[in-house]
Automatic annotation (TrEMBL):
Domain of life: Eukaryota
Coiled-coil residues: none
Entries under PANTHER family matching the protein: PROSTAGLANDIN REDUCTASE, PROSTAGLANDIN REDUCTASE 1
Protein name per its UniProtKB record: Enoyl reductase (ER) domain-containing protein
Domain Enoyl reductase (ER) span(s) in chain numbering: 53-339
A Pfam family hit: ADH_N_2
GO molecular function: oxidoreductase activity, acting on the CH-CH group of donors, NAD or NADP as acceptor
Organism of origin: Absidia repens
InterPro entries from the UniProt entry: ADH-like_C (IPR013149), ADH_N_2 (IPR041694), ER (IPR020843), GroES-like_sf (IPR011032), MDR_fam (IPR045010), NAD(P)-bd_dom_sf (IPR036291)
Length: 344
């Protein structure tokens, strides 16, 4: 049973083999199961930026629990029940939720419900790939949908600017905004990513690494920015503040440029929040399970109608999970980063 272990708290970028390591152990699939127990095989797992925040000393409190040193990491996964002595799950069921980063896990009804594992239909029954349930139809997709409607209060005709726009959250946020009638501008860190943004309907996109962000926002958002979908923070935020329109909204989704810094960057221009009467609201999607059913309805339909595209990077093999997570933190991923643990 190959496991992905949180081994050491990093102070800057984590290193594979040091802060995250691979452990191989025996797992007896034949051992009898007590009442309520069942075994799952992990099919697909998701690595996400917020996991960097969980790689901390357990004494520091935050919105998501710290990973436990020496134990397998966990995160959004799709799993399949391969053996069961539970009345709640049967062999062949697909489970979604916070799975452990290991090939096989034994759960019981109580521990499974604590991790919010839920049984859903065969994900492939409507032709949708299994990995979509940890991406466009999973936590990142819900984040895009909730951020735009509940925080951004997006309106037809407005201009939205999205940073980290080709990523798991950003690419869906852009396509929903476009479908809603906004002018959509995005930035990303490579020419390939920028080309993709234009292909999927962004009105304009630029490479924030090679272009001057301030000059590009002046050129591409001639009427200013009404809504900023904030994924990056730091200097990017400082520049965008000067382009915001009066009564604009900033969707405080994430600040990935800060996650691996020993000391956060200082951000200037905050007086714009007052003078332009901006609403700048952060949110953590884990607080909003109530938003899921409408999101699933809307976005599943958009996928089935082929109204949205969704780029993913698949890493094969659970033993490559550490590199996959590091790729997300350094921008090597293109679209939603997933790890294929089993063939599906
Ligand atoms: P992505 O798939 O977008 O992957 C992360 C991307 O961020 C990288 O590909 C890279 O793209 C970009 N990036 C990495 N480092 C930097 C940097 N130093 N400066 C600028 N960009 C950088 O991730 P997600 O879509 O899953 O997440 C996007 C944001 O949303 C993150 O901030 C994340 O924390 C946040 N989030 C928040 C949630 C919430 O509940 N509030 C839930 C889910 C996500 P590029 O090549 O373009 O630089």
């Amino acid at each position: 049973n190959t496991q992905v272990i949180f081994s050491k708290v990093p102070s800057t970028f984590p290193v594979s083999g040091e802060h995250i390591t691979i452990n191989k152990s025996q797992f007896d699939l034949e051992a009898p199961l007590a009442e309520g127990e069942f075994i799952v095989k992990t099919l697909v797992l998701s690595v996400d930026p917020y996991m960097r925040g969980r790689m901390r000393d357990a004494s520091i409190k935050s919105y998501a629990p710290a990973f436990i040193l020496g134990q397998p990491m966990d995160g959004h996964s799709v799993m399949q029940v391969i053996k069961s002595n539970s009345v709640k799950t049967k062999e062949g069921d697909y489970l979604y939720g916070m799975g452990k980063f290991e090939e096989y896990t034994k759960w019981n009804d109580k521990t499974a419900s604590e991790q919010n594992l839920v049984v859903r239909n065969d994900p492939k029954s409507n032709g949708i790939p299994v990995s979509y349930y940890v991406g466009v139809l999973g936590m990142p997709g819900l984040t895009a949908h909730y951020g735009l409607y509940a925080i951004g209060n997006i309106k037809k005709g407005e201009t939205i600017y999205i940073s980290a726009a080709s990523g798991a959250v950003g690419q869906l946020a852009g396509q929903i905004s476009k479908a809603h009638g906004l002018r959509v501008v995005g930035s990303a860190g490579s020419a390939e990513k920028v080309a993709y943004l234009k292909e999927i309907g962004f009105d304009a996109a630029f490479n924030y690494k090679t272009d001057d962000t301030d000059a590009k926002l002046t050129e591409l958002c001639p009427n200013g920015v009404d809504v900023y979908f904030e994924n990056v923070g730091g200097k990017m935020l400082e520049i965008v503040l000067t382009h915001m329109n009066t009564f604009g909204r900033i969707i405080g989704c994430g600040m990935i440029s800060q996650y691996n810094l020993a000391k956060p960057e200082k951000v200037g221009n905050l007086m714009n929040i007052v003078s332009k009467r901006l609403k700048f609201e952060g949110f953590i999607i884990f607080d909003h399970p109530e938003a899921e059913s409408q999101f699933l309805k809307d976005v599943t339909q958009m996928i089935l109608d082929k109204k949205i595209r969704y780029q993913e990077t698949h890493t094969k093999g659970i033993e490559n999970t550490p590199e996959a997570l590091l790729d997300v933190l350094t921008g090597k991923n293109f679209g939603k980063q997933v790890v294929d643990v089993a063939n599906v």
